[in-house]
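Q: How would the C-alpha cells look for this protein?
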Amino acid sequence: MLVTGSSAWKVRWAVCKALWQLKRVPNDASEADFYFLSHPFTVSDASDSQFVLKEIWLEQPYRLPAGLSISSIADVGANQGFSFHYFKTQFPNAAVHAFEPDARNSELLEKNTAALRSEKDSINRAAVWFEDTTLFANNTAALPSNQSFVAMDAASPGPGVQAIDFAAWIRIHKPDLVKMDIEGAEAQVLPKLIANGAAGFVPNWLVEFHPGTYGEQIEREISAGFEKLGFRVEQRGIIRFYSKIIAA
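A: Here is the predicted structure in C-alpha cell form.
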C-alpha cells in the first residue's frame, strides 16, 4: 500500500468501510449505494467498484510528485466518478474536465460528482479521438466502455457516440494533467497526439495501457514517442506516468 502520511489510516479505514458496504450488495443488484470518505456513491457493479477503490486509493497509481502545480485536469475515461473524486480530493482548486462516452456511466458520473463540482469543472459525454467524429464500439451493438472505438460509417451497426478532436481541445484548454483510461483506444489516439505534437502541450500524463488488446509493442512505441517529446517515463504496473523534463 502506497498511502502515506498522517491521513493514511483514515483512507484505509474509509476503504474498508466502503468494501464492507459493497460486499453486502446482492450479486443480481443493478445498482449499489454506499459512502466513501463521507461522500455518497451509486455504482452499477459492486464487485468492480471494490477493485477500483482499492486500486485508486491504496495502490495510488494516480499520485503525483509533491510540488507540482496542477490547476486543470482532463479525466479521460472517467467511468462513474472514482478518479474525479480522487483528483478533487488531492487538488481541490483544480478544474477537472471529465470525459465518459458510455451513457450509463455518464449518468452515474454526473450523480456521483454533483457535490464535488464547481462552475469550472465539466462533465462531457464524449469520447476523445484525433478528429471530431462519431464512433461506434467495435463488434457490438451496444456501447460498453470496455470496447475499443472505430470511426463510424454509413454501414456501421449499433448506436454511435460523439467524439472530440482531443488535440484541438488540449491546445485550447491547456491542462496540466491528462489521466487516460480508454480501454484500448489509447493505441489509436496517443500515436496521433504524439505525431501532431499535441501531447507535448501537457506536462503530465497518466495513461493506463491494455496490452491484452493490442500487444506490448504499441506501448513501447508510445513511450518512446513521449521520450522524444522530452518526457521521462515511470512505470506503475499497467499505468505509465509521463512527466515533462524541465530544463534547468
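Residues 139-149, 151-155 have pLDDT under 50 and may be disordered.

Residues 8-23 form the longest helix (16 residues).

Upvote if useful.
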